[in-house]
Amino acid sequence: MTVSPATFPSTHRITIVLVHGAWTNGSGWRPVHDRLIEKGHSVVVTQQPLTSFEADVAAVARVLAMQPGPVVLVGHCYGGAVITRVGNDPKVRALVYIAAHALEENETPLGNDRKFVDPASHAGADVRTTPEGFLYFEPSAYIEDYAADLDPATALFQAHAQVPTALGAFDVPATHPAWKDKPSWYMVAGADRILSPDLERMYGRRAGSTVVEVPGASHAVHQSHPQEVTRLIEEAAASCHVLPD
After folding, report:
1. Within-domain flag for 162
2. Chain centroid to CA 116: how far?
3. Residues 6+ apart with CB under 8 A from 22
4. CA distance 106 to 164
5. How would residue 240 be classed by pLDDT, with cut points 50, 70 and 90?
6. Sheet architecture: strand order including 210-214
7. pLDDT digits (tens, 9 = 90+) for 22-43
8. Confidence band, pLDDT 50/70/90 cuts, at residue 117
9. Cα(185)–Cα(96) distance, rounded to whole angstroms?
10. Which of 5, 10, 35, 65 could make an SS bond with 230 (beta carbons 3.0 to 4.6 A apart)?
11. What is the pTM of this model?
12. pLDDT one-digit tens code per residue, 71-103
């Protein structure tokens, strides 16, 4: 029997929708998902194709359309660009950015990455491009740059299971950003080698977000520090109960 996310039992009127980033899929949210479920939250994890920005936006929008009530939208990495667009949906009450792009109108992830180049990082040099224009990491580079603080077995598996991501998805200008109209929370990964921590700090400050920083955390902070991420999401979800319908 197939059960749609909208029919899952819930003890909360808020649904938390977790949106993954580039080079991965929704399985990376497992540590956070499980903690939220244990606490009684209604949770849905998206699965974007990473073939184009518009396809990824459409995939998340379909998930939102299936939800019966208000949503907290959570994005990691490039998923932040997606929730910045999709978050304009009236169902979305709050946004949570986890080491993610919180773009201003007309900005792109690629353009902002170039403005905030971390001299200590060589992640850009480790990215490869297929003839069809999809980006991927060599496994050793993925482990070092994306998942440095994960246990070796998990990091190795993720490196081998990474999802090549369309280069063009990183170069689509943002439209009106949802964070201008809705409350947001932001987690900075202090040792991120994919997004500059300084870029993350700028995003959180500019959006007026409630900002939490995890020192020493890699880009995979949602997996290496799921307790902290869960706590931040719950704070956002709790705020929604006092927002007007």
Report:
1. no
2. 19
3. 50, 77, 78, 135, 163, 165, 169, 170
4. 25
5. confident
6. 42-45, 15-19, 71-77, 92-100, 184-189, 210-214
7. 999 999 999 999 999 999 999 9
8. confident
9. 5
10. 35
11. 0.92
12. 999 999 999 999 999 999 999 999 999 999 999
The residue with tokens 């520090």 is 225
CATH number, domain containing residue 178: 3.40.50.1820
Count how many domains the chain has: 1
pLDDT the model gives residue 124: 60
| Owner of token pair 């280069």 | 167
Phi-psi region of 69 (alpha: psi -120 to 50; beta: other; left: phi over 0): beta
Structure-block tokens of residue 153: 């077995």
> According to DSSP H, which parts of the chain are helical?
30-38, 53-66, 79-86, 109-115, 123-126, 139-145, 152-161, 197-206, 221-224, 226-240
99: left (phi > 0), else alpha (psi -120 to 50), else beta? left
DSSP state of 193: S
Q: Let me know if residue 4 belongs to a domain.
A: no
At residue 243, the pLDDT reads: 38
The parent domain of residue 219 ranges over 13-116+169-240
How many other CB atoms sit within 10 Å of the CB of residue 119? 6
Give the whole-angstrom CA distance, residue 188 versus residue 196. 9
